[in-house]
Design brief:
This protein is mainly α and about 280 residues long. The chain has a domain of about 180 residues. It contains 13 helices and no strands. The two termini are about 30 Å apart.
């Protein structure tokens, strides 16, 4: 029998084994929370849809103003000097608005989504690995947004390249859905490409790979990076490929350096633990 004044230490919930039913219940809770965050973000984006569409058209509008009027063809309104997009389907405007609202809501809810993913994975990690949660979430968000920004600012030369190579007998008349899909896929490709180094650091942290292995494989990594950049870039132009591949290469070596710092810190902790024991 235990005494009334005794207080036994409470076990760490993250270290307790969960049944399959408990895992599924937690997964459902995380999905519901992420879904609600995306829904709220989608409502905000839908309310600001006209402003967002005008912002997404800015690279194309700047390109049309810097080129002769015939360069953009029917996409340039000669009366107002503004760029216009076309709906070729009665429901295209509605479906495009819904798609933009969903993907925009996903971007706005990205901090919540990443946090819910991390919190679901956390129980499988050690205590020393769980404390890096906020750093991984914040770095993933910042790198994703940085990738989207680079994609947006390289859209102007990418569009110029694609229109120039379309041929003299063609006239640009872009659909609103096709243009928004191009911008969205460009942001997604660059954003995901910039998050890959965070995944490498995570794999180094849990000892799946080591910084030494990544450094030895740098030649193969460069080939893979340029191949991946060529595949995931939706425009397929060399400007976007280079704009994605070069930062990914730099971030690859940054991931090796960060992993090396973690490895040294872990080795120091392990040596101190051996000395104390």
């Amino acid at each position: 029998m235990s005494r009334r004044g005794d207080k036994s230490p409470k076990p760490d919930p993250a270290q307790q084994e969960m049944t399959l039913t408990e895992h599924l219940a937690e997964l459902r809770m995380r999905i519901i929370r992420a879904g609600l965050a995306i829904m709220v973000g989608g409502v905000v984006v839908m309310a600001l849809y006209d402003h967002i569409l005008s912002w997404m058209l800015r690279p194309y509008a700047d390109l049309c103003r810097s080129e002769p009027p015939s360069f953009c063809g029917q996409s340039l309104d000669p009366a107002t000097g503004k760029v216009v997009l076309f709906n070729l389907d009665p429901i295209e405007g509605l479906t495009t608005r819904l798609k933009v609202s969903f993907y925009g809501g996903l971007v706005l809810a990205l901090p919540v989504v990443l946090w819910q993913i991390w919190r679901f994975v956390v129980p499988a990690l050690h205590k020393t690995e769980r404390r890096y949660a906020m750093g991984f979430v914040l770095s993933s968000i910042l790198l994703f947004l940085f990738g989207c920004a680079i994609a947006f600012y390289t859209l102007n030369p990418a569009l110029k390249f694609m229109i120039s190579w379309a041929g003299q007998d063609t006239t640009p008349a872009f659909q609103v859905q096709a243009y928004i899909r191009l911008v969205g896929l460009m942001c997604l490709a660059f954003g995901v490409g910039f998050i890959i180094p965070v995944l490498l650091v995570f794999l180094e942290l849990i000892r799946v790979i080591t910084p030494r292995q990544l450094l030895r494989a740098w030649r193969y990594a460069l080939v893979i990076i340029f191949f991946v950049a060529a595949v995931i870039t939706p425009s397929g132009d060399p400007i976007s490929l280079i704009a994605l591949a070069i930062p990914m290469t730099i971030l690859y070596f940054v991931a090796i350096f960060v992993g090396w710092i973690f490895q040294r810190a872990r080795g120091k902790r392990e040596r101190n633990a051996e000395v104390e024991s």
